[in-house]
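Researcher: Structure for this, please.
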Amino acid sequence: MKSINSNFNAISDEKARAVLSRLHAEAGRETWKLLWKYLPYFPRLLSGKKLPWERLERTHDGDYLASTPGHGRYLYLLARAIGAKRIVEFGTSFGVSTIYLALAVRDNGGGLVIGTEMISSKAAKARSNIEEAGLADFVEIREGNALDTLRNLDGPVDFLLSDGFPQYALPVLKLVAPKMRCGAIVVNHNAAAMKGDHVEYVAFVRDPSNGFVSSSITLAGELSVCVAGPSAVRSSPVERLTTG
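Model: Predicted structure, token format:
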């Protein structure tokens, strides 16, 4: 427990710290199960090849896919540093990273974290965890496919955490990007671990004509900064459609 608590030196809220301690401990107990699940795919990961997400996606319906304490602290500090008021989180799971982001929004003077989650049971548990942490007033969890639930999104968006399944990362980014302010930040830490699944994503954010500057950063994975104003970032006509 000492290693977990040492990562909370930026978090002063005792209620939130208690919830996060519990959630990180629960997630930690699942580490070996996740490693065992991905063991057959290690050669693909190490060689930069795509994983078969059509088979893997539904095997995670009950799994913790949570940020580590260090990554959560990083997200909190980053959101505080840019004064984030409106944050979009693609892939809420049980709400661990959501709590860090909601703390940042609250401590920045108020705002909203808009989370997305496909699995109903996870969305319900995330809401319960966020309520227990005393942060329900700063979070809205949209249940369903993010490509549908994020179509009606107010801006400007200050921060996007892309933490869902890799095959949706780029379409979600293109959907949210037109609402992002100049100077907004995108964090996708899966891009570092699952390089084969993020080739197109990384190519997009590293192409300056798409309105971002981007690089691989420890803890962030792929850290991108929007350098174009709202609606200036490219989005294909298909991704502007209002139907799923």
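Researcher: Any notable elements?
Model: Confidence is low (pLDDT under 50) at residues 236-244. Strands lie at 86-90, 112-117, 139-143, 157-162, 180-188, 212-217, 221-226.
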